Structures are given as structure tokens and as C-alpha cells.
Amino acid sequence: MNIHIASNAYDLGEAAGAAAAQTIREAIKVNGDAHIILATGASQFETLNQLVAEKDIDWSRVIVFHLDEYIGLPVTHPASFRKYLHDRFLSKLPSLKTAWLINGEAEANEECTRLGSEIGKQAIDVALIGIGENGHLAFNDPPADFETDAPYIVVTLDEACKRQQLDEGWFNAMDEVPDLAISMSVKQILKSKHIICSVPDIRKALAVKNSLESAVSNFCPASILQLHANCDLFLDQQSVALLSAGSL
Questions:
Q1: Rounded distance, CA 42 to CA 13, Å?
Q2: Residue 117 falls within a domain, yes or no?
Q3: Residue 217 located in a structural domain
Q4: What are phi and psi of 96, to 5 degrees?
Q5: What is the number of structural domains in the chain?
Q6: Taking 80 as the threshold, does the pLDDT of residue 129 lie above it?
Q7: pTM of the model
């Protein structure tokens, strides 16, 4: 794992977005297309801002897969990740070759099957992800399923995950946060050739410490990133606050 430390969330996102853009350009040059995974949430604000600002990317050759989405939440809801990707990414770019977004209003198992059949057709060049306050990857809360081969799965959100969504302002009350979501599985995320993980903020400091300094365990799902051959972890001065000197 390659660790990059920026002074603040803005610089972190600028560096992560630039790294993602370069990987996309290289994939298009070598393969003709680029297949990418996009996360959402507060941790991705600056990374996606930088990515859409990057020059010389032929977006008509880019295929996007969506990381996770709440079940039963309409696309018009402020917390909808489809809405997030439309507002912060898709609407700011020329048309992509394809955007495979998760429809949380469809029958969940059928939606998992639909998306799983598509993502299995090609290798993913780069996944842009974050780490949750509880150490989750996508919505794979602890103890995460490290064994399933299914690309997309239905998951139950734990209390800590739901509290994070509330505290970040996506919902007005805990009882508004859905209990269920469709999430890309851990194994599917790890199949990506390159992972760019953006983790700003003091709220993530304990999760970062556990992910880097603890043994790999599904009780801290992000710890499995230690095993990926090409993972770049972008942190800021706040999110590294609890790391020991030997981890830096």
C-alpha cells in the first residue's frame, strides 16, 4: 500500500483525483476504454471535483460502475447516491460510454444480478473508494463478508454506519436512514487493478489506524486493503492523527 499525506482535505482530493485521471488516461491508451468504480459520500467531494476538472480524458470511452446505494430511497432524495453521482459527476461531463448506476428502487436481488452480470464482463482499471468511520468498504459493515463471490450483495447497515450518514447531514433523523442497501462486495472491489482510497477528516482517524495497524480482519473491513497489490491511500493531517510513526 502506498500512503500519501496531504495537508488538508482539498489537497488530498486534488492529489487523489489527479492520480485517478492519469490511470484512466493510461487505460484508454492501452485498452481503448477505461472501466472505473466510483464511491460517493463526503470523503469523495474533493476527489471528484478534481477528476471532473482534469483535461484530456476522453469520457466517451469511460464505463462507470456505482459502489453502493440505499434500498427504497427515491433518486430525488438528497441522500440518494444516484443523485449524488448525477449532480457531482455525470452532469459535469460529456456523455460517458456507459454508467451502471444502482437502482435502489428496483427489486434488490434482481438489481444485484443485473449489475453483477455486467461488471463481470471486464476488468476494472481503477476503483475510487473511501473508508467508513466503522472501517467499512462500500456498505460492507463489520463483520463484512470476505468470502462471497457475488459482485453485488444486499447488506444491513449497522448503527455506526447509520449514525455517520446522519452526522454528515444526509438525513434529519436516525429513523430516516434506510436499514438496507445494495453494496459492491469486498471481493469485487479487490479485483480492481488499482484502488485509490480517499480518507480525509479526524472522524476517520481511528478507522485509518485500525485499517493500517491491525491484522486483516472482517471486523475492520478496510484492513483488507493491506493485501491489495496496487492501492494508494490518500490521507490528510487529521485522518493520520492516531497513526504511529512506523506507519507513516
A1: 11
A2: yes
A3: no
A4: -80, 165
A5: 1
A6: yes
A7: 0.96
Residue 225 belongs to some domain of the structure: no
In 10 A of CB 74, how many CB atoms? 11
Residue 21: give the domain boundaries: 2-158+168-209
Range list of β-strands (E), the chain: 2-6, 34-38, 62-66, 68-70, 98-100, 126-129, 152-156, 180-184, 195-199, 231-236
Q: The domain that contains 101 carries what CATH number?
A: 3.40.50.1360
Q: Is the dihedral of CA 158, 161, 166, 170 positive or negative?
A: negative
96 found inside a domain: yes
Residue 79: C-alpha distances to residues 41, 82, 86, 170, 194 (Å) = 9, 9, 12, 5, 28
Chain position carrying cell 449497522: 158
- Cβ-contact 14, 46 below 8 angstroms: yes
174-217 pLDDT, tens digit per residue, is: 999 999 999 999 999 999 999 999 999 999 999 999 999 999 99
